[in-house]
Amino acid sequence: MYDMGTRARALALVDQGRSLNSVSKETGVSRAAIRSWQSRIEPLPRMQHQPCVRCAPVPKPPPDSAAYSYLLGLYLGDGCISAGVRTGYFLRVACANSWPGLIEACAAAIESVNPSGKSNRVQAVGYVSVVGYSRHWPCLFPQHGPGKKHERTIALEPWQQAIVDAHPWEFIRGLIHSDGCRITNWTTRVVGGERKRYEYPRYFFTNLSGDIIQLFTGTLDKLGVAWKAANHRNISIARKASVALMDTHVGPKY
């Protein structure tokens, strides 16, 4: 299944006088398909789907930018992109079985962003991989690359940063839902000569990538959320006003 952009590019190369064999090698499209397109450019109804907004002649941001911001946070935390056997890519986000609401939210975000509008779920021991297949995941998530995220540079493209700036809470929610949590801490205080137990909520975010940590804390700074680095890979949010902000816009996993 090829999008209209791929079809148009292949036919443009043929119009330049290129052989079907060379165009096939460059585009990954079979010669038979290119030959059929020379007489029929419109895809069959069963093959029609939305084009990729990023590799269109004039690149645009994903139409559902709020869903994209949330999915970007999920991807940077617990997501990965891998090449398919033939063509295309799989985006996978691991979600623990303990959080069925998170699984639903992740699937909805993938379906909103995926040009095909589809997702599926693969059950594993203790978690579900929410999966979307598309030829265009590297267009939508240019952070994709070989190796682990914390072993390579992770930086947002200007169009991605613009989306995060427009929907910062969705981005923070995605990061917390992937690599964060809301917990109840406790300590003791002496009140009236008697030591009493005192409980308070706090949020944690944990990631091995210093770049992703910086994206998280930089967005928190813009939102006025106070944070503290527990160590090089753990960020704590414990001040009462900041926890209240996080509870309003993020909340615990569910």
Order of helices and strands: HHHHEEHEEHHHEEHEEH
**CATH fold call of the domain at 178-249:** Endonuclease I-creI
CATH superfamily of the domain at 178-249: Homing endonucleases
In what order do the strands lie side by side in the largest sheet?
Answer: 1-2-4-3
Which blocks of ≥5 consecutive residues have pLDDT under 50?
41-48
CATH architecture of the domain at 178-249: Roll
Q: Report the structural category.
A: alpha+beta
Radius of gyration: 22 Å
- Beta-strand portion reads 15-25%
Break the fold down into its secondary structure elements and pairings:
Layout: H1 4-15, H2 20-27, H3 31-37, H4 65-78, E1 79-83, E2 89-96, H5 100-113, E3 120-123, E4 127-134, H6 137-140, H7 158-166, H8 168-179, E5 180-191, E6 194-206, H9 210-223, E7 228-231, E8 234-237, H10 240-249
Antiparallel strand pairs: 1-2, 2-4, 3-4, 5-6, 6-8, 7-8
